[in-house]
């Protein structure tokens, strides 16, 4: 399959895609090679998510991820995908203090990380910060439903929108984020019917993950799409398109076996000196050590 070259999207184009019923594609990327591959594949948008805490840094949640981590990984992703719209996550507790502190961390993601936009988890309770960022000229992607930064408050990774009260709360949160100026909203682990209804009610795009086909776009974690993990766990809302984890492990096992049996490096993998160098090292008449 050839490399796909596309013009980078903007928040205006994303809204037009919703209106034209052109599904938006988003994939996470946390480093240079991953972002480069994602851009070459023709993905509309890249999310440098704080999920890097789980899949790259080895934490058991997103909570330990810092603003320094996000700046570092966003900058690396930008080098790999210079022509893709990149959204960077605001990590845990970086937008729950003062507006000044929030804007400073946003500034770092934009100036140092070279992000095009930031993402914040939460509903009506974060609209003050969303509004402040938008007024400062920063596009904000909202995120409701399962919000991993609030996993302890939610009581675990639970499906959202299973009751009438929950559905109403999600809708009100989505509308509040839209009024505050968010350019789109991620709906995570929300029941299909509720996610579809919210998508119909909003004028801005919704991007689903485990939220059914009624959203205006979809996002998946790179490591889930290609099953790149030493201890991969099946997820109902994920479709695996490649299994590079197994391929990588088997490749490295073959390398270890070749080294142990001295099959690698072979002569084709080595470089030979001139004959007089061998004679200089070993002396006249000495047999070259191979």
Automatic annotation (TrEMBL):
It holds the Pfam family Pantoate_transf. One of its GO terms (molecular function) is magnesium ion binding. Its cofactor is Mg(2+). Binds 1 Mg(2+) ion per subunit. Pathway: Cofactor biosynthesis; (R)-pantothenate biosynthesis; (R)-pantoate from 3-methyl-2-oxobutanoate: step 1/2. Signal peptide: none annotated. It is found in: Cytoplasm. It is an enzyme of class 2 (transferase). Its EC number is 2.1.2.11. The active site is at 188 (proton acceptor). The keyword RNA-binding does not apply. GO terms for biological process: pantothenate biosynthetic process. SUPFAM superfamilies: Phosphoenolpyruvate/pyruvate domain. Homodecamer; pentamer of dimers. Belongs to the PanB family. PANTHER family: 3-METHYL-2-OXOBUTANOATE HYDROXYMETHYLTRANSFERASE (PTHR20881:SF0). Catalyzes the reversible reaction in which hydroxymethyl group from 5,10-methylenetetrahydrofolate is transferred onto alpha-ketoisovalerate to form ketopantoate. This is 3-methyl-2-oxobutanoate hydroxymethyltransferase. It comes from Paenibacillus agilis. The gene is panB.
């Amino acid at each position: 399959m050839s490399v796909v070259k596309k013009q980078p999207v903007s928040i205006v184009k994303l809204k037009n895609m919703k209106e034209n019923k052109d599904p938006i594609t988003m994939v996470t990327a946390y480093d240079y090679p991953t972002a480069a591959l994602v851009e070459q594949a023709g993905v509309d948008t890249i999310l440098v998510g704080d999920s890097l805490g789980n899949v790259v840094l080895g934490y058991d949640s997103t909570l330990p991820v810092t603003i320094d981590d996000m700046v570092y990984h966003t900058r690396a992703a930008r080098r790999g995908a210079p022509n893709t719209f990149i959204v960077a996550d605001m990590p845990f507790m970086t937008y729950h203090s003062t507006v000044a502190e929030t804007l400073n961390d946003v500034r770092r993601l934009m100036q140092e990380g070279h992000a095009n936009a930031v993402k914040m988890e939460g509903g009506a309770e974060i609209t003050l910060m969303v509004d402040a960022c938008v007024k400062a000229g920063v596009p904000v992607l909202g995120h409701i439903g399962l919000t991993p930064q609030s996993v302890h408050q939610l009581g675990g990774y639970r499906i959202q929108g299973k009751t009438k009260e929950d559905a109403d709360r999600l809708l009100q949160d989505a509308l509040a984020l839209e009024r505050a100026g968010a350019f789109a909203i991620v709906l995570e682990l929300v029941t299909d019917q509720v996610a579809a209804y919210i998508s119909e009610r909003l004028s801005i795009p919704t991007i689903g993950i485990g939220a059914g086909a009624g959203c205006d776009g979809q996002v998946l974690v790179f490591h889930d799409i290609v099953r790149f993990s030493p201890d991969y766990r099946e997820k109902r809302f994920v479709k695996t398109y490649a299994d590079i984890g197994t391929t990588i492990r088997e490749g490295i096992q073959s390398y270890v076996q070749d080294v142990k049996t001295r099959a690698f490096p072979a002569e084709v993998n080595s470089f030979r000196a001139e004959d007089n160098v061998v004679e200089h090292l070993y002396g006249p008449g000495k047999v070259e050590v191979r």
